[in-house]
Design brief:
The chain is of the alpha+beta class and 194 residues long. It has four helices and eight strands. The termini are far apart.
Length: 194
């Protein structure tokens, strides 16, 4: 099993309870999302629990990296290729927001810079919510705000933890079972002698 170490990594946890009086609320439950930035490459990944609601994308990013909007806009403005955002709407109501950039104008060759999928229940339900260049993430989110204005909200605070793996054991290191059994056996022998 390989561990990937990122330059900046955060785990963001969220929890919302369904109010008793309200029968329907868009986001409830709890979950955690990992956010990492490595040399302007952004990875947002669902780690566990329910999929976050689309309105939690800003609070998740703000909690993990408060300067993401400024840094992403700066990278985006330095872009060298023409670009556009396409929104594919599925029959179920799900939407895929794609950034495409024109690589070769003579042949009409374009590439996909990044994709964010929103389910028909307005959840970010892919395990990899986004992976790609931070400069591609900002215009995709800008288009999402047009579709989901509730994304821009104040006052939501989420729990953030830095990814600290120093207390983890490396592969190949003993589990400690044999040593613990021997320690208990020695303690029992001493107790029997007393």
């Amino acid at each position: 099993m390989a561990f990937f170490i990122f330059l900046k990594k955060k785990e963001v946890k969220w929890r919302f309870k369904r109010p008793k009086k309200m029968k329907k609320i868009v986001f409830y439950g709890e979950g955690s999302v990992g956010v990492s930035i490595d040399n302007d490459r952004l990875l947002i990944k669902k780690l566990g629990g329910k999929s976050p609601d689309v309105t939690l994308l800003f609070p998740i990013m703000d909690a993990a990296y408060p300067d993401w909007k400024k840094e992403g806009e700066k990278l985006h403005r330095g872009r060298i290729n023409p670009w556009k955002i396409t929104v594919h709407r599925g029959l179920s109501g799900a939407k895929d927001f794609r950034l495409r950039y024109l690589e070769d104008e003579n042949f009409g060759y374009f590439r996909t810079g990044g994709v964010i999928h929103v389910s028909m229940y307005e959840r970010l339900n892919w395990d990899i919510i986004f992976t790609g260049w931070l400069g591609d993430f900002v215009p995709i989110v800008a288009e999402m705000v047009n579709e989901y204005p509730a994304m821009v909200q104040e006052g939501i605070r989420l729990a953030v933890s830095d990814g600290d793996f120093e207390d983890w054991k490396q592969p190949g290191v003993t589990s400690g079972l044999k040593e613990n059994i021997e320690k208990i056996s020695r303690a029992r022998e001493i107790m029997m002698k007393i």
